[in-house]
């Protein structure tokens, strides 16, 4: 990880956080002790693949919001000047 920032807790109690320098959103599960990737490729970029968040590139994501009603995750992708929504 490089410059982890901003975190939210999802409905399952997992920690979702930004790995800003790597352009990724990650998830840590206390139940399993594992960390995985939710969005991003590990390379900063601007490629958007609507149906595949693991192929979508982020560039310096800096803010997360988890909608408490829907469970949707919103990501401010700063250097790409966009906000992405990941439906849950």
List the topology elements:
Elements: E1 4-9, E2 15-19, E3 24-29, E4 34-39, E5 61-66, E6 73-77, E7 82-86
Antiparallel strand pairs: 1-2, 2-3, 3-4, 5-6, 6-7
- Which second-level CATH architecture applies? Beta Barrel
Compute the number of structural domains. 1
CATH class value: Mainly Beta
Radius of gyration: 12 Å
Q: Could you give a short account of the major beta sheet?
A: 4 strands, antiparallel
Percent of residues in helical segments?
Answer: under 10%
Beta percentage is 35-45%
Number of strands: 7
Strand order across the largest sheet: 1-2-3-4
Task: Give a quick rundown of the structure.
The protein has 88 residues and is mainly beta. It has no helices and seven strands.
Describe it:
The chain has 88 residues and is an all-beta fold. It has a single domain, classed as Thrombin, subunit H, CATH 2.40.10. Helix content is 0%, strand content 44%. The chain contains no helices and seven strands. It has strands at residues 4-9, 15-19, 24-29, 34-39, 61-66, 73-77, 82-86. It has a four-stranded antiparallel β-sheet, with no helix packed on it. The termini are far apart. The model has no long low-confidence stretch (mean pLDDT 94).
Summarize this structure as a short list of keywords or feature phrases:
single chain; mainly beta; Thrombin, subunit H
């Amino acid at each position: 990880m490089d410059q982890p920032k901003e975190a939210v807790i999802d409905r399952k109690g997992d920690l979702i956080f930004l790995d800003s320098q790597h352009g990724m959103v990650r998830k840590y599960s206390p139940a399993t002790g594992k960390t995985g990737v939710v969005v991003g490729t590990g390379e900063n970029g601007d490629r958007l693949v609507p149906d595949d968040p693991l192929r979508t590139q982020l560039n310096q994501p800096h803010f997360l919001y988890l909608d408490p009603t829907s469970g949707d995750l919103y990501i401010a992708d700063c250097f790409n000047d966009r906000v992405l929504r990941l439906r849950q």
